[in-house]
Design brief:
Helix content is 0%, strand content 43%. With 158 residues, the protein is an all-beta fold. The chain is globular and about 40 Å long.
Length: 158
């Protein structure tokens, strides 16, 4: 994956400084040096297809995650083509979403909600959910998840 800085130029590669979470204590096992800045601009061209059952025309780019030394949270950039959707699924960790472009119907539990650019959502653990792009342009959203759950298991896509 190619990352860039705010001007669009490629960013320097910054590796992780340690290995995730200590499962016995549920605490960060490393500290990220204050001088390590990872700067990237979301770029749909860098998003790769999501390989899950029930997905249609959805891609994801990891903007910040474990590979960048983030001990607690990961930020992902999703791009859902018009008519595309994420899987209808649930998992035992939360995520927070901010819509940056487009319009979608989000199924959450048994209800459906219309969302659009600028909306912010909290998806609670263990709640069935799905994003369906109903617009004419790609749906783009940022999704934040913990880098681990259950005291140390890596969160997929973090």
């Amino acid at each position: 994956m190619t990352t860039g800085n705010a001007s669009g130029a490629p960013a320097a590669s910054i590796g992780a400084t340690g290995a995730g979470i200590d499962a016995e204590t549920c605490s960060a096992a490393h500290a990220v040096p204050a001088s390590a800045l990872h700067l990237v601009r979301p770029n749909p061209a860098n998003a790769v297809p999501v390989a899950m059952d029930g997905v249609k025309d959805t891609r994801m780019e990891i903007l910040v995650g474990r590979q960048h030394g983030a001990p607690n949270f990961a930020m992902r950039h999703y791009v859902v083509a018009p008519g595309g959707h994420t899987p209808h699924h649930a998992h035992n960790y939360e995520h927070e979403v901010i819509v940056i472009d487009g319009e979608a119907d989000v199924t959450y539990g048994t209800a459906t909600h219309r969302i659009r650019s600028g909306d912010v959502l909290f998806i609670a653990p263990n709640q069935m959910h799905q994003f369906r792009n109903i617009g004419a342009v790609p749906l783009r959203f940022l999704c934040m998840v913990p880098t681990s759950f259950d005291c140390g298991k890596p969160t997929p896509g973090s």
